[in-house]
Design goal:
single chain, 38% strand
Length: 805
């Protein structure tokens, strides 16, 4: 009898959903809430009131960073670490209307990030305060809304207490904002947790936990439906259950499913499924919610390093800060995609989110593009690094911030390790033991599928209390690459990763001829023989006193199987921390790619080592003084040797010996053509030529893409170069380029990658640096093609057109 009842129930449910599916509408409405905000710098507590006059406030679209719009100031409170840009206080305000018919719904607002000390008000009522500038959060607006009438939301942002960071933070509502409308019965915020207890290409198991919120005054019975869709949106598994929930409460429900013939996620083929959760009341759809899903399994081993899906895989990683160069902290998915594309093309397969939670867009793109992620929560605990940093908020907020961070990111298949801290001061005293154990316990209470790590600087066991806690699953070490060889003995049985490495210094396109590896400075506070123009040679021979050159570090990591991999400091230059120089230097020298997104020469060393691309890159440029002795380097792969020619005359063949990563020749300069030819088994693999450039003839404009969407968000980056009549780059050109944009776009940023450039990122002009700069154009919403006109003194203007669609 029971058996027959179950069969009848399943048939009824199946009929119910096959009939109702055609009449379904989307129950959950997620609305872009970025547009038509008013903003003003300063403190305006009365702005929470509905009768406040904001007619003189600026109207703008979020995300927004007011710091990047300011002028560089040697006396700025943010100091050198944050790039000498302004901070302060600001207010945002928006008027909006909610239909009267929505009074029975739950309406919430979601902020992906506000830097910092944000307080949100709705119709004069404070919804809450959030000090952490990197954390995502949300509030339920429902009890305080005027349905069918105007509502006022106001956000106070207080970034005035400085210094509060060791890098550029930006100021304001710098990430996206959404309005989410659902029925009273719905999936809670970050309310799903999907894991894959068993993974194979034949069959994989999925375990889904769904937290259901019931904001109704009465208990509810509902049907919970889980569908797993493949990359083509074809359903590959489903589960249906009848559930109950009490009034004004939340409960977690569980579904277990099997997926046959599973496609695995990896860094080369990041295949993504999605889990669609639907809630029905009496056959009416009341909520639908999507969760990313990737099937993969990985392992850290104390002897063999890292493997993904059973395949030994070295982690080729870079550390990234959250700023997007000339856009400042403004988060834009197109800027992030460009950044990650450059790293992918270089051969990187991993990103460390330094040293704080990054954006939702960054996480989504790492899933889609195939990056292994080290997700990092904190740069400080209770002990400060600068006067007004997170240590002031630690006691009151660290638990909630860490929990929210884990809940938001734990469904991303790209995330393979949780970092609870970077170079934490408690490493050096016994308080580090208890805090490490507490944080690891919080992480494990929410996710046991990934190891907990921390970026450590101390490899003397007696001095490292974070290590002594015994709470880390994976040991991350920063720098001191020369000590790695001793780690298998010193940390016997431990799994080890270079969580941060290198900190080499370069300026794109600037060359001081090599005279051996040097540290600038040799120790903290020491004087050093730097350059008067605040540049550093692009030959990989200058490093910070705590770091290594790129080649020194990679040779070490490459040769030691037990090291799971490395995260280079950094993939890109970033605003702030311009070691080794003082003002006017205002951005870092550490990047493999400069702040404008233009690769430095060492990019091609990594590409030759980390990627499958066939590489031949020679440096420097070929515009020097007659008979000047020039050192020519070549990075290459997939070849036995490289032969160098000057004006057709062979200067000899060279091949890498032992663990060499480049080859070099000393060449007396004469104008003409420098040509490199790589060969394998006597056959030509690649040829590369560099020509002596003549007089300036043209402004060359190259857009990264031919069309953009007219959605007010899409970006196109245009690389601007000065060339001679034959199209050769003028490698030392510093001319001023003026820009004029018309049609469906607007100029939102300019940059040339020079670390001591004090011109505004928001100007309508930019000086070339070593022949190049960039212009960033954003859609303005008009259905018109975009024209960028570039002019310079004594040269004919150049125009490029970008289509909108």
């Amino acid at each position: 009898m029971i058996k027959h009842k179950n069969i009848f129930q399943k048939i009824t449910i199946a009929l119910l959903f096959s009939v109702s599916v055609f009449a379904q509408k989307q129950a959950r409405i997620v609305e872009d809430f970025n547009k038509n905000w008013n903003f003003k710098l300063g403190d305006y507590p009365e702005a929470v009131n509905s009768n406040f006059n904001a007619s003189d406030w600026r109207t703008l679209q979020l995300p927004h960073d007011w710091s990047i719009e300011g002028a560089f100031d040697k006396d700025a409170k943010t100091k050198q670490a944050q790039g000498f840009l302004p901070a302060g206080k600001g207010w945002y305000r928006k008027t909006f209307t909610i239909p009267a018919s929505w009074k029975s719904k739950t309406i919430s607002i979601e902020f992906d990030g506000v830097f910092k000390n944000s307080e949100v008000f709705i119709n004069g009522k404070s919804l809450g305060f959030r000090p952490n500038g990197y954390i995502s959060f949300g509030y339920d607006l429902s009890p305080y809304l005027n349905y069918g009438q105007a509502n006022i939301i106001a956000v106070k942002v207080d970034n005035d207490s400085q210094p509060n960071s060791r890098w550029y933070t930006g100021s304001g509502i710098y990430r996206n904002v959404r309005l989410v409308t659902s029925e009273k019965l719905h999936v809670g915020k970050w309310g799903t947790f999907v894991t894959t207890p068993e993974v194979s290409t034949k069959k994989s198991k999925v375990h889904l936990e769904v937290t259901i919120d019931n904001d109704n005054d009465t208990a509810r019975e509902f049907t919970l439906v889980t569908s797993i869709l493949d990359a083509k949106n074809k359903e590959v598994a489903n589960k249906v259950s009848i559930e109950k929930i009490g009034a004004k409460t939340f409960e977690t429900k569980v579904h277990n499913l099997d997926v046959l013939k599973t496609q695995l996620w990896d860094t080369e083929n990041p295949y993504l499924y999605k889990v669609v959760t639907k809630i029905y009341e009496k056959s009416v759809l009341v909520d639908n919610y999507e969760t990313p899903l990737g099937f993969r399994f990985f392992n850290f081993d104390s002897e063999k390093g890292f493997s993904l899906n059973g395949v030994p895989t070295k982690i080729y990683g870079v550390c990234l800060h959250h700023d997007n160069g000339a856009l400042g902290a403004v988060e834009n998915i197109h800027a992030v995609r460009r950044k990650l594309t450059l790293m992918k093309e270089m051969g990187a397969n991993a990103i460390r989110m330094s040293h704080n939670p990054h954006s939702l867009e960054m996480m989504q793109l790492c899933d889609e593009m195939g990056f292994i992620v080290q997700d990092e929560a904190f740069d400080v605990w209770k002990k400060k690094k600068v006067t007004n940093d997170y240590h002031k908020d630690w006691d009151a907020w660290h638990k909630q911030d860490l929990e929210d961070f884990i809940k938001r990111d734990r469904n991303h298949p790209s995330v393979m390790m949780w970092s609870i801290g970077n170079e934490i001061r408690e490493q050096f005293d016994s308080t580090g033991i208890a805090i490490t154990r507490e944080l690891a316990k919080i992480v494990k209470s929410l996710d046991t599928t990934r190891p907990v790590t921390s970026a450590l600087t101390e490899n003397v066991i007696e001095k490292n209390f974070i290590y002594q806690s015994g709470a880390l699953d994976l040991l991350g070490f920063n720098y001191k690459h020369e000590d790695y060889k001793d780690f298998p003995t010193k940390f016997k049985g431990q799994k080890i990763l270079a969580s941060e490495s290198v900190s080499a210094l370069e300026t794109r396109g600037h060359y001081d001829f090599p005279d051996g590896i040097k540290a600038w400075p040799t120790k903290h506070g020491a004087t050093f023989d730097g350059n008067a123009d605040w540049t550093v040679s692009a030959y990989d021979q200058v490093k910070s006193y705590w770091g290594a050159t790129h080649e020194e570090n990679w040779k070490t990591i490459k040769s030691q199987d037990f090291m799971a991999g490395t995260f280079i400091w950094t993939g890109f230059d970033y605003i702030g921390e311009p070691d080794p120089y003082p003002f006017p230097a205002r951005s870092s020298y550490f990047g493999i790619v400069d702040l404008a997104g233009l690769p430095k020469d060492v990019y091609y060393m990594y590409q030759s080592e980390w990627s499958n691309k066939t590489v031949l890159h020679i440096l420097p440029h070929w515009n020097w003084k007659k008979d000047q002795e020039v050192e020519v380097w070549a990075y290459y792969n997939n070849a036995d040797e490289v032969e160098l020619f000057l004006n057709g005359k062979s200067l000899g063949k060279k091949a890498k010996q032992n663990d060499d990563l480049h080859i070099s020749w000393r060449v007396k300069f004469e104008p003409g053509t420098l040509k490199a030819v790589s060969r394998k088994n006597g056959k030509v693999v690649l040829e590369k030529e560099i020509h002596t450039a003549g007089e300036a003839s043209k402004i060359d404009l190259k857009a990264e893409k031919t069309s953009i969407k007219n959605d007010t968000y899409d970006l196109v980056y245009v690389t601007v170069s000065m060339t001679d009549k034959d199209g050769n780059l003028l490698p030392t050109a510093m001319d001023l380029i003026n820009f004029e944009v018309s049609g469906g776009g607007k100029l939102v940023g300019v940059d040339n990658g020079y670390q001591a450039n004090l011109d505004s990122f928001k100007a309508n002009s930019c000086k070339l640096f070593n022949g190049k700069c960039i212009a960033i154009i954003q859609s303005n919403g008009k259905k018109e093609n975009i024209q960028l006109k570039a002019t310079s003194q004594n040269l004919q203007s150049s125009i490029i057109e970008v289509k909108t669609n």
